[in-house]
Amino acid sequence: MLHAIAATLDETALNWAVKCCLLAWAWYALAPIESASFIREGDKNVGILRQRKSAAQRFEGGVRVVEALQAGYVGLSAVRHLLAVGGPLPVLLIQRMAGYLWFDTCYECVLPFVKGTSLSLPFLVHHLVGLAAHGLAKTHGPLRAVTAHVYLAELSTPFLHKSWFLKQGGRAESSLYVKNGAVGALMYVIFRVCWPPLFVYWNRDPAPWEAEQAGVHSAFLACSGVFWCLNLFWFTKLVAMARGSKREKQA
User: Fold this and answer.
1) What is the distance between the alpha carbons of residues 93 and 77, in angstroms, rounded to a whole number?
2) What is the domain extent for residue 179?
3) Which of 28, 42, 133, 148 is disulfide-compatible with 62, CB 3.0–4.6 A?
4) Cα separation of 74 and 78, whole Å?
5) Using CB atoms within 10 A of its CB, is residue 230 exposed (0-12), middle (13-18) or buried (19+)?
């Protein structure tokens, strides 16, 4: 596993990780330091509430912008590839995703010092397993081909981050927030819960994989199992959060 992770440390991936850092820093430096939202009484706006954003909020906002853009990039690239090209993904896309994973792994390690939260072990496991899978995919055609299906899961991510920005802007009660959350939840269920077992089933035959490199099919099954279990874990947390939010509104 360590050898596969080390294989992702190439010039292309590291350059992409640096670009992700620069974009996040640009957002932190240039984003407004205040947020404004309407104060409502019934159906009317009766004033404007201005709140100063903390450094931690701006830091997290910058990273979320990068995460949303990266997810949209690889997700839509995967859709285009599956519909118009087929076969293994370009190695360049694998390298860029690996670079992003290095960026996001560093963010997860730094975040506890910025926000005072605990280190997220599920995210850390997800990213390290993802890096190992990308290290193998650089030189393995069948794994790059199935990675296009894996990238479809990223299509739900921009909606998650948009919900965060809407909530930070005081629009958690808006119809846009509800619609965005509903679309994001639907995409999550389709591409993170339902789709992975299907493409694992379609690739259950190890022969084409083993012909190119022994052991990669077993690694694919193991990585897929880890990702699917983590997606189910996060889905239960999202459902619990949604139910808690609904109870608060009813109260």
Assistant:
1) 9
2) 2-250
3) 28
4) 6
5) middle
Q: In whole angstroms, what is the distance from residue 27 CA to residue 163 CA?
A: 18
Q: CA–CA separation, 105 vs 75, rounded Å?
A: 19
| 41 bridge partner residues | 44
Q: Which amino acid is at 31?
A: A
Contact 56, 33 (CB under 8 A): no
145-179 pLDDT, tens digit each: 999 999 999 999 999 999 998 888 778 888 898 89
From 150, 153, 174, 165, select the one nearest 234 (Cα to Cα): 153
Helices 121-137 & 91-115 angle (0-180, nearest 10): 160
Rounding to the nearest 10 degrees, give the CA dihedral for residues 160, 225, 233, 187: 30
Query: How confident is the model over 35-78, as pLDDT tens digits?
Result: 555 555 555 554 555 566 677 888 888 999 999 999 999 999 99
Euclidean distance between CA atoms 95 and 135, whole angstroms: 9
